[in-house]
Every structure is written in structure tokens, then in C-alpha cells.
């Protein structure tokens, strides 16, 4: 991974968009790019732009006072810019960061309004995300990636604790320290959430206990209601099934009787058709035609009366099925009425036989007996009236109308018999065709008698059908009033589900359960809902506390693992760092001895010297065991131990040796050196240039310098100039191409 280009726009003196392209690695070595120019040309602003895009927040390090100081402020000829933007483009083809593509763009943008944003590959991110990404790539604004003019001396004169932060990035543990800080923050937040959840649980528990007791008291009501529902299903289900079975049976019988009646009507109509055909042949007997016409009219009238009788009986049956209670009433027993009618039928047959024999005496006696029997039957029918109690006016009117219709039908029957006698009398002298007519007449009479029987049966079936249908409707209304929610399930009840159910035994149980439900003390309707809501809240909080406890354990394990990782990596890196520090110190000083010492942290003490007690939380969040880093350096021929006693040049070379050692053990993708060689003399500058060449095997360098030896070590040079408009501009040169041009 290496730095491919730097794009600057509106940052400090770079008012126009300026691009610094860096050479790719060549023959196993990274490029060294030199940035040169006179003082005040703005070349250090390039280093500041890199530090700024890497997330630097200190305006002091950026040589400014406030944020907008990094935005081009304008000049006499150029207006100021409204924003500053810097973009670093990294080549990631070696997949140093596996979750990114071949190129990674990091952008920082600041507006004069104060709004700012960070972008990774043109996607907006948080500063923390950017810092973590840079730490993974061993790049950071506080690390040795950008070493400014005063940083060399700061490394030397810094306190051990300040120096430790610098070494943490150098040893590659910064990434894990960031994760540790994030873990510590999560631990603190988790503990706070647990405390809040615990307070809420303690607040909820008393009220929840009270509500639970109230809801427990409702348990009996719930059980009784469930039992009532079950009993209602049995009771109403049994009644519904019984009525449904009876309804289907009656409906089947009604259909059969209706079909039989239709067949009888067709047979009767056929007989009538034949009789009318015979009538048309008897044009010589007008008296017979008149009698026959009257007979037909009587048949039509009686049929209409029969239909009206059926309608009236149905209306009365419906009214009775809907709860109209009638007291016992006087009526003619069907068996007695049938016997009387059969006697009349026998007398009619005897009369017919006498007519056929043309025995006038026998005919007279038969007519006398028939008249007497008819009068007796009429007398019985007229004197028998229903006596009702608690009947409605509509029922009484229907019953009276039905009695009148029945009486009229009896009179029509009597008149039919008389007309038939007239037909028989008029047919004595007709021809053989008339005999056929009488045969048809007798057959028609028999069919009429049979149809009357079927009419009675059909009438009874229709009444039963209407009654059961009305009972089912009444049962539906009763269920809807008692338990409307059970109506659909009761309609779907199957016979096997209510086998063995005795409604006479179940009904008292249902009444008792209903009474118990009504007697249970009424509870506020919102008590149960409040308990449910509060209980759900309680369970949620306790569940959250369990999750938080588990999360706390996980975070503590992660923290412990990070501490172990930091300690392990620091130990191994620190040993190698000491070795390389001695190596580069010897190169720069041509001998001498240098070493780094870790200062262990001490327990915090009170003024009286006693160790301060730590809270459980503080004990659970361990801190770094290393408090700082001390530097010991002894140039050749001297006995100096502390770095503070070195001269300015010696301190600079010591710091450069340390920085070179850091670059060796934990190389950053690139390092910016901003005039770090300014304090070196000519011989040491040559040694410094040799060190840069050696380290270019691991690190890409961008060197801002005035030093000729350093320039000679560079692969490419950028010259920075500034015109009268106060804007920095660049001139680039590849040294290899320049050398070839010189040779040519």
C-alpha cells in the first residue's frame, strides 16, 4: 500500500486545485519525493494539508487559530474560497486493507459556515471511522506519518507519558488502543444502562405485585366463563343439531309429498282432459253440460279454498312456534272426523250403486241417509270452536277465517255430491259414450279423494316444516342474545360432538354458571390491561438486564483480550525498536550507545501514602501498565545519560535515529518529513540521506527540505513557488529523466 496522489483545493495558500502525484514502487523500493522551494512559498502547507486530511483537530499544530484559517483567505487579486478540500489517494492493490478495493480515497472538506465532512471513497463517514481505518493502515495524524519541523525536538523534550502515546502508534498498538477505548466507553454505557434498568425494575415491582394479586382474583371468573362457554356449546349445539336433523327429515318428507301431489295433479288433469273431450261429443245433452260446468267450478273453488286453508294454518303454526301459549281447546278428533267422512263415502257409494241399478226406492233412501249424515257433520263442525288463552288478535282472526274456509269447503263438498247425483241422474239415458264418461267421473272422484288425503299430509308436513324452521330462527336469536360469539361455531356443530348430551341436565348447569358469572365482583376493565402492559415492561427490562449482563461479560472478555494483545505486541515491538534505535544512532553518531526504557505505572496514592481504593467499575476497566517511555543516549566519547543534557544537534540526530527505528519496525505506508534535516551539518545530512535510501525499502518518503544531500536522494522533486497573488503553485521533475537528459 502506498500514497498515489495528493489533491489540494482551497487549503491555505493552495487556492487552485493542485495535484501531487507520487511515483509507484520500483525494484522493491518505494519512492522518495522531495518538495523544495524558498521560505514562505507554502511548501510546508502541503505537509499541513496531509496532517489535516488525516483528521488533525489541533489548530496549533496546523499553525492556525480557528478552523476557517485553513481556507484560502484571498489576496489582492484573488477572492477568498468558501471551502477547503484535501484528498489522499492510496494504492491498495496489495490488499493491505482487505475490505477495500484497489484504490482508497480519503477526503476532508470544510466550509466557512463551519460545516465539515469526512469521506472514504466519496461516502460520508464519522471521524472515528476514519481514525480506525488509518490505525489499521498504521497511518494517523498523531503518529510519525507526518513529522513536522518542531516534532523532532518534541520527541526528545516531551514527557515520558507524552512520548508513550507516540510510541504506541510506532509499535502498532494504536488500533487496539482505539478499540480498547471504544470498549471502555461501551462498558461505561452498559453499566449506566444496567443501573437505569435496575431502578426502573425496582420502581415497577410493587405496583406489579398489587396488579398480579388483582388479576389472580379474576382467575375464578375466567374459569367460570370458560366453563359457561363450554356448557353453552353443549346445550345450544345439541338443540341446534336436533332441530337440524328434524328439519332435514321434514324437508325430505315435504319434498316427497310435493312430488307425489304433483304426480296426482297430473293424473287428475289427464282425467279432466278426457272428460272434456267426452263433453264435446255430447252436444245433444245441454243439461249435462251445465251440470258438468258447475261441477268444474266447484272443483276450482275448492282448490282455491284449500290453498287459502294451507296459508292460514301455516300462519297459525308460525305464531304458535314463536312462543304463543294456548290453553287446551275443544276440537274434533281427527279419528272421529275421518270415521264420519268414511261413513259419508260409504253412503255415497251405496247411492252410486243404486243409481247404476236404477232403483228409485234405494236411491231415495240413500239420499235421505246421506243428507242426515251431512247435516250431523255440519252441526258438529259449526258447534266446535277453539278456546284460546293468551292469543293475539292476529291469531284469533286467522283461526276464525280458517274455520270459515273449512266450513265453506264442507259445503262445497256437499254441493259436489249433489251435483254428482245430478250427473248420475242425467246420464241414465245417455249412450255408451256416456258410460265412459261416468267411468272417468268415478276415477276422477277416487283421484280427488286420494288427493285430499295427500293434501292433508302435505298440509301437516308444511306446518311442521314451518314450525321447525321458526324454532331454528328463534334458537338463533336466543344464541345471539346469550353468546353471539358462539353462533358460528354452534352452526357448525357436528352430531358426534354432542352425542350423549342431555339438554334437560345441561340447562340447569348453564343457568347456575351464568348466575355465578353475574355474581362475581366487577373489576375495573383497565386493571388487566394495565397488568399486561406493566408485566410486558417488567419482562422487557429484566430481559434487557440479562442481555446487558451478558454484553458486559463479553465486553470484559474483549477488553482483557485487547489488554493482552497490546502488552504482547508492545513487548515484542519494543525489543526490536531498541535494537533498531541503537543501529541508526550508531550510523548517525558513528558510534555511541542509545536505549529506551519503559516506566511502569504506579498505584495512585493519597496524601498520606495509602493506596486509594478503587470502585468495582474501576477495577473492571484495567488501564495501561506502562506510564511512559524514557530515552537514554550516549554519543561516542561522552558519558551523558539523559537526553536533556545533549546539544541541539545531538538531540536532533537522536530523534531522527529514533524515528528511523520506528519506521523500520512498523513502517507506515508513507512518511512526510518537513525539514527535519534543517539542524544537520553536511556530513550528517549525507548520513541522513543514506538512511532514507535504506528505509525506502519499507517506507515511501515525502521530504520537504532545503538540504542538497536529501534532494539527491529523491526520485522526484516538486518545486513550490508563490507569485504576487499569494497562491502556491508546483513545478515537478523526475530526477531519473533529468539525469538522462544531462547525459544526452
UniProtKB/TrEMBL annotation:
<keyword id="KW-0175">Coiled coil</keyword>
<dbReference type="Pfam" id="PF02463">
    <property type="entry name" value="SMC_N"/>
</dbReference>
<feature type="domain" description="RecF/RecN/SMC N-terminal">
    <location>
        <begin position="2"/>
        <end position="728"/>
    </location>
</feature>
<protein>
    <recommendedName>
        <fullName>RecF/RecN/SMC N-terminal domain-containing protein</fullName>
    </recommendedName>
</protein>
<feature type="coiled-coil region">
    <location>
        <begin position="254"/>
        <end position="361"/>
    </location>
</feature>
<feature type="coiled-coil region">
    <location>
        <begin position="437"/>
        <end position="478"/>
    </location>
</feature>
<dbReference type="InterPro" id="IPR027417">
    <property type="entry name" value="P-loop_NTPase"/>
</dbReference>
<dbReference type="InterPro" id="IPR003395">
    <property type="entry name" value="RecF/RecN/SMC_N"/>
</dbReference>
<feature type="coiled-coil region">
    <location>
        <begin position="531"/>
        <end position="572"/>
    </location>
</feature>
